[in-house]
Amino acid sequence: MNLGQWIGLIAIVLSLYILWQIKEVLLLMFAAVVLATSLNRLARCFQSWGMKRGFAVILSVVIFFALIVGFFRVIVPPFVTQFHELTYRVPQGLERFNGWFNELKTQVPDQLIPYIPDLDSLIQQAQPFINKLVGNSFAFVSGSLEALLKILLVLVLTGMLLANPDAYRRVFVRLFPSFYRRRVDGILDQCETSLEGWVVGALIAMAVVGLMSFIGLSALGVKAALALGVLAGFLNLIPNLGPTLSIVPAMAIALLDAPWKAVAVLILYFVIQQAESNFITPVVMAHQVSLLPAVTLISQLFFVTFFGFLGLFLALPLTVVAKIWLQEVLVKDVLDEWGPSHEQEAELVIVSSSGKSDDPWDGENSESDREQPVDDAVQREE
Q1: Whether residues 136 and 246 fall in one domain
Q2: In the chain, N or C terminus with fewer CB closer than 10 Å?
Q3: Do 219 and 321 belong together in one domain?
Q4: Is Nucleus among this UniProt entry's keywords (predicted)?
Q5: In terms of residue numbers, what domain contains 91?
Q6: 209, 107: one domain
Q7: Are residues 293 and 281 in contact, defined by beta-carbon separation less than 8 angstroms?
Q8: For position 377, what pLDDT does the model report?
Q9: How many domains is the chain partitioned into structurally?
């Protein structure tokens, strides 16, 4: 390698190192791009109805913030009420269980009493863990503030991108060589179409899961059914892990009424998730985004390992965009063009005048047929 090649290699390594150090910022920028693409799609719908661009963008942003405020208005108040109820009903349940446990010890033979654990000692042993959990409350608050700042950053970036998306797109395209810019612009069109399709499909699946959860919980008589249904639909945006997380608050609230309700909620959510994973999502995403289930799961494991919870949340849109770039750039523009040109391939294949196989070394040809290509090559050289 000469000096220029060494300098190029060092520049690539340094660029990859810098990108890895700012990976969280890049993920936030990508989240802003996804959100801006979704709102831009809504703004274009309003523009198709004759509305000007400025008013269409403002109306899209207002609808988005109205949905966010409505989500928290529906979710937070019922959960606060149920949390207060849990704070005094859980100690009552523990006290009742302790009395039942002590009564059971009186009916056990004296030989088995030393082998029965003491509930009070277990509570004392768990006290350090409880204190540690309470002591980490400051870290939880600071983490919440950091998450709030990140959300604000994403919203600000979304507003900037939504105000003039074409300008930022032209800047990105100019980062590539001039002969490849038209190709990059076409790839960006495909990415935009696929992201819009993913957003539409995810919203449809989210609405169906939320509605089914609300109807099932209402039929079981579980409190805060609307809030739990909305939460189940929202967490459905996180495949595999989100549906599991949505079961926990629903079972906790159902357990306040009766144990059988908690079991019924578990069965209900299992049925809903089976229907969602086997029927709803495949049918919806087949018309919007074509992703293999194994690819989806592998991408989630990859992004959550390297980028944490934010990577898990953005795993599907990242996979959609990465698939398009790999397919268009690596496969079509590099791998499909790798090898001898068509003219060289035509020179390597010599058609036999006898009308037999095109391959001069085919086993069906005679010895004279095998020598004929060599004689033709000699005549061409003369």
Answers
A1: no
A2: C
A3: yes
A4: no
A5: 21-163
A6: no
A7: no
A8: 41
A9: 2
